[in-house]
Amino acid sequence: FIVSVLAGLIGSVIALSSGYLGGKVDMILMRITDMMISLPYFIVAIVMAAILGPSKHNIIIILAIVGWAAYARVLRGEVLRIKERDFVLLAVTSGCSKLRIMLQHIFPIVVNTLIILVTLRLGVVIIAEASLSFLGVGVPPPNPAWGLMIAEGRTYISSAWWLCVWPGVAIFLVVLSCNLMGDWLRVRLDPKFRQL
Length: 196
Fold this sequence. Notes:
The chain is mostly helical. The protein has nine helices and no strands.
């Protein structure tokens, strides 16, 4: 959850700056975002985890750094759509600063999309963390982690199959729950669906 929130905050700041300020700022930030999206998410996370070493804090930082680009790309589109609306143009005309417009007029509208993205990306983060722990570059062994449980139970799979099956089922159920919650929030928070 912390990884999704951190990545969402980084992506929100970049999306607000890029979408509202436009020009060279938009071009530079979106090229960096495109570069991050084009990199293979999981391979970059493995390399960074191998360099920094296995630790709970390192995994949080790595997955947040690698995952912010997906938020920035989607939220930038929302910001571009919102900044042309009348209430933003009126705020500009009344002399509001750019920072105030971004934080008080645009960000509250973008929050619904951000919440939905956080819940949907939460499943991706859970699978990434479990995969890194399974490979031995995630959470170190004294700490409980589903990927680590599957890795340790794989040696006993012929005699005690449940050691790796139940952590796998837990990962499946939690990721499915996150995706269903994200889908429910999308329908619940979207005004178009509320009118039906």
